[in-house]
Amino acid sequence: MTTTGAHQEAAGATTRGWWWWGRRRSAVLDVTLGSVSALECAAEGVEFADYASLPVPVGVVFGLLAGSVLVVRRRWPIAVVLVSIAITPAEMGYLMAIVGLYTLAASEVPRRIIAALAGMSLVAVLIVTYVRVQQDIASADFDPGPWYVPLMAVFLSLGVNGPPVFLGLYIGARRRLMESLRERADSLEQELSLLADRAEQRAQMARTEERTRIAREMHDVVAHRVSLMVVHAAALQAVAVKDPQKAVRNAALVGDMGRQALTELREMLGVLRAGDRAPARETVPLAAVGRAAAAVASAAGAGEVPGVEDGPCLDAVAELVEQSRQAGMVVELLVMGEARSYGPRVESTAYRVVQEGLTNVHKHAAGAKVVVRLAHRGDEVAMQVENGPSDGKAADAGLPSGGNGLVGMRERVTALGGVFVSGPTDDGGFKVSAVLPVEAA
């Protein structure tokens, strides 16, 4: 049973009418001790009544009332000890004194109060024992020496008061230590639960980021290639009868683009299958799970997923532009600055931005003139795809749009700390611009 359950059980027992006792056996024990103490004091009250020249029933009733105070030892331990000290001159309540001092020492009463009451009880027992032993020696006409009476008084008083006090202090310290350990265990259990929840959240975030990344890659691979294939297929249909040679060239281009799309898809699916075939590892601690999930989430958010091959680079932009030209688009490529190599993520992101920009022109601005600008600067690389207004005479290929192209480009650029801007131009066209820091490489 946990500590919380024990507290709830104790609270439930209190509301059921067990007064200050948390458990049934505690109440039974205290009532039993109180009854034994009352009988002891009643028996000793007979001798006290005879010694004090009182009626015997008075001494018995007094002993019963005084001894029964031990029942409340858990609720009022100070009162029990005070009563035992008060009836010590009557040579009554030895059980009450021993049990009361133990309960007081084991309770949460301040140490100075425990020391004061234990000292009072020690002095009371010492005085009563001294007087009683001296009277017994005098009546027996026996002279053991001057040290016998005080030595016996000290031994008896220490024997009655010392063991219960020290035992109570030990039990109280042990009880507080156990409560502290239980609280610490509960705290650790809560922390582990929080770590498990956080690890699950981070794992879920990592899975979400990974699904988003895969969807973005699939969109980049499929959308551009298939868009060009649809455009070439439309051109093939238009010139099949009039110009067979051009139709053959368009058919060859469609085949090449289809093969390229299939190759890229196979590479991506191969990475996914390799991840599925990864061997299961042994269970690790929750803290390590949390750190691993955080690392996976960070890597997935930045696009650094182990096992994923480097994407296309900026050197392939010219080929990308040429493919659009072969599809009938009027495209101009302007490169400013000295071309150099960058990190794989920077080059792949720059390539995808240009690719998606050209794909959007194929989808939404058939026949429009396009200018692709690529600028190599000191600490950044910039790219821009700008198209003019759509040519109304050009046939629309009827390409579907999922509306996620611009969102994917923005996610890619901002993940590398870059800036992404898109929107219509003054002449009725559309412009997509991105700037990537070189440090991101």
From TrEMBL:
Transmembrane stretches, start-end: 54-72, 78-101, 113-131, 151-173
Keywords, ordered alphabetically: ATP-binding, Coiled coil, Kinase, Membrane, Nucleotide-binding, Phosphoprotein, Transferase, Transmembrane, Transmembrane helix, Two-component regulatory system
InterPro entries assigned: HATPase_C_sf (IPR036890), Sensor_HK_TwoCompSys (IPR050482), Sig_transdc_His_kin_sub3_dim/P (IPR011712)
Residues of the signal peptide: none
Domain Signal transduction histidine kinase subgroup 3 dimerisation and phosphoacceptor: 210-275
Reaction catalysis annotation: ATP + protein L-histidine = ADP + protein N-phospho-L-histidine
Molecular function terms from GO: ATP binding; phosphorelay sensor kinase activity; protein dimerization activity
Gene Ontology cellular component terms for the protein in this record: membrane
Pfam families: HisKA_3
Coiled-coil residue windows: 171-209
Matching Gene3D superfamilies: 1.20.5.1930, Histidine kinase-like ATPase, C-terminal domain
E.C. code: 2.7.13.3
Taxonomy, superkingdom: Bacteria
Protein name per Swiss-Prot or TrEMBL: histidine kinase
Organism from which the protein derives: Streptomyces ficellus
Phylogenetic lineage: Bacteria, Bacillati, Actinomycetota, Actinomycetes, Kitasatosporales
